[in-house]
Amino acid sequence: MSADGPLRLVQVGAGAMGRAWLATIAANPDTELVGLVDLDLDLAAAALAEAPEGLASGDVVLGTDVVEVARAAGATAVVDVTVPAAHHAVTTAALLAGLDVLGEKPVTDTLPQALSLVAATQLTGRRFVVSQSRRYVHGAFQLRAAARVLGAKGTLAVDFFKAPHFGGFREAMPQPLLVDMAIHQLDLARFVLDADPVAVYAESFNPPWSWYAGDANAVATFEMSDGSRFVYSGSWCAPGAETSWNGQWRLSAERGTATWDGEGEAVTTAVEPVEVEAVEDPGRELAGSLAAFVAGMRGAPVMCEVADNVHSLAMVEAAVRSAESGQRVRIADLLEEAWATALAEERDNEVRAVLAGWPSAREGLARSR
After folding, report:
1. Is 159 a member of any domain?
2. What does pTM read for this prediction?
């Protein structure tokens, strides 16, 4: 990729979310769609035909294999918008073919597969960035800026209360809220505090009026590496007075408090004069995520690379385990267990050798951060 040329992208996935990404790519002058991959070629062709002007071009290569399409199209990077169960296979193939990847959250279906992908980036020297798109909201960046000047952090809390009727697989999941939605707020907590999780105690339950088969409500308290606590309280069956999709936030710190409603501007109330750094608008959600990825490919620092994002996925898995066991779960224990599983399950000998060379899961992740 040249310093001023567009990033040549192959997108994998042409469903509803794939179409949103096609529109995002079309709106970014620094990117060019050169390939579209889906197991259903008719679906891919239809998505391309209905895409914004400029993408419905005969120059876009269609196919069912990401590596073959990328080579035929002369792509530089891949945008993976497949279902979570396909993330590991698609991303591994792209990385081993010398392609950088921007992938939809979650990083993979499981923590061991996520560690496998970290090892694959270390083996290949390619980047895999997870699109935690809800970080890319101006108010979230303002809340983080406030956290940096308010001194020692005590408690960061978020309330997330929505009542969506999705139908389909979400309403049949055992843990729909924690597994399918909470990662957005858990990842935002790491972003705001600039800290990683240490341990969690969580409870989940399903109110009697819930239209979900699994637990639609959860409360979780995380111990963070800076000594603070992050408290998540949420529901997906909470009709009336709903919060934004980003939740409603409050940070209590040494020199004051910062609040954010999840949509507008963050508000800082300090007990002594503080200067909160003004932050630029990062771009909204998918657009911000894509712009940051392009900047990273040109040499800028990038958030949410896989070795960092593993800690957000670990928060989800630890909360689920705690809720189901009734026990406090240490993140370090979860990571070590996942590392052992990753070594046992890894099919690529070179990736397995990288995993085997880690002194521990945490030290292996630190090599990429």
Report:
1. yes
2. 0.94
